[in-house]
Predict the structure.
Amino acid sequence: MYTLVVKQNTKKGILEAASRVIQQSGVSRMTLEEVAAEAKVSKGGLLYHFPSKNALIRGLVDDLIAQCDLFFDSHKHDSSPGGFTRAYLQSSLFLDASSAVGVVSAIANDPSLLEPLHKAYARWQARLDNDGIDPVVATMVRLIADGLWFSSLIGTPSLDQSIVKRLIRYIDDLTRVKKTERGSSKASPHETSAKNKSNI
């Protein structure tokens, strides 16, 4: 058991080192020797986990997907309608976007790496579509969450955090509107209020 933990920690350390090296040098200039030195392991130790540069880069993509899945699994306690959608929303705040910089750079260098991400997004979208709330609302939440996360990833000017918190609360409320028997969402309090005003 101890050996397994050490191997997992070493593998994780190599991936984190690779991400840092990519940020500093770029994917094309990254070498296994440089990553091994950054991770403080021998090249042989690196090759034990990742036998080639391509395997290492693919490992970065797989690790990002695994981080997302682990975060979603940690929110399984919310089994009410919209539970997965809310977990997806929270991921935009708590998943470290900086760790994905290397992945984005790698994808720009090799678009074939998009395939595992496409499969992961298809799997997550299927869960959103079947989360017990209006799929349109769930998809809207996904796109907003992705936007917040990628905004952090590329380092756009900081948003007013008070506005971000209000936005998150507002969107969270939308995920708590249950579907009607016809499959569409009931009107939100905001929509009901607006409709009542228009009838005055």
Summary: The two ends are 70 Å apart (CA to CA).
